[in-house]
Amino acid sequence: MRLLIFTILLLLAMPESSFAFHKGGVGSCKTCHVMHENQDGLPVPTSGELLRGDSPSETCLNCHATTAGAVFANDPLLPGPEYGGGNFVFLLEDELQDGTRGPDRSVPGEAGGHSIVVPARGLSMDSRRAVAPGGSFPSMSLACTSCHDPHGNTDFRMLNGAGPVQGGLATFSDPAPTAQGIDLSGPPASDSNHTAYQGGWSRWCGNCHGNAWHESGASNFQHPVDIPLGSDVARDYNQYRGDIDPSGGTIADSYVAMVPFEDPLSTTSSTGGPSASSRLSCISCHRVHASSAPAAGRWDFNVQALADDGLASGSWAIPNPWPDPAQRSACVKCHLVDHDKGKVCLQCHAPGPGGSAPELLPTSSP
To answer: Of the candidates 254, 249, 296, which has an alpha carbon nearest to the alpha carbon of residue 86?
Structure first.
């Protein structure tokens, strides 16, 4: 009996986050919602949901902007720790163009990822697209809750699964993906501490973007999606240690967080590379929130050398995971070619017919 009483007292003394915060744990509702019109001197927000913010996304960012995942830093040049998803602050940049196309081909910050609509933080809908590329989700309604269930579920990072989202604004046909995530209050992501993408990511992204955006010809850049890497690509990935040692690696320690892959056996501390059955996925090349590269790229697809990132635009330079300052695009991690012909990869390998992704247009003919 004494042990029971002690346990109850101990639980009551724990912080609210210990009580399944996003599942309505003890006292947690009040962190997002006001209970009465004059609670804590706050008026009832105009959203009509009694939120402590004018919108669900603003309310999410009350906790998650600079802590609990750090998804919205105070300065796009000081993005803070990276926990896997990327940082929405890059959407506030005035220029992301670091390629060779010249000043007439400006790339605004809103091209850096998912333009969630949060006016209080300076974010409005994507002015370039009314709907998600490849799909029909309305840009004017894009919010944190388009992807995440704020009240909690059992899926990775509380991602929305199959069914209606945002009160029926859209309906997802594919379930939430599977993954293991690192502690959002612990050390940031690294090659040995990273999100373990295990399956279903491309299909889940396809809920908004369609399942063949880069395969159907709708995008300027065509590339297989959601397929096994195969033995040749897996071999290249595992051998490659950067341009200074392109074939000296082994499968045991070849993992690079900049270029992840899907594998059901992956863990957050895995350092091993892929097998032939590991899968290429949307997240192999893109951040799920935003980056300082166009199209939420994990690296800038439009620069010839990784060291060129940020030079022309003045934007934050994505760290180079390899020591060579002349390191080529991270595309070569999977495509170990012995040439670059003095050009960006996309100058020769973006044969698409054109469409709604100007940041991926080839810069000239091969």
So the answer is: 296
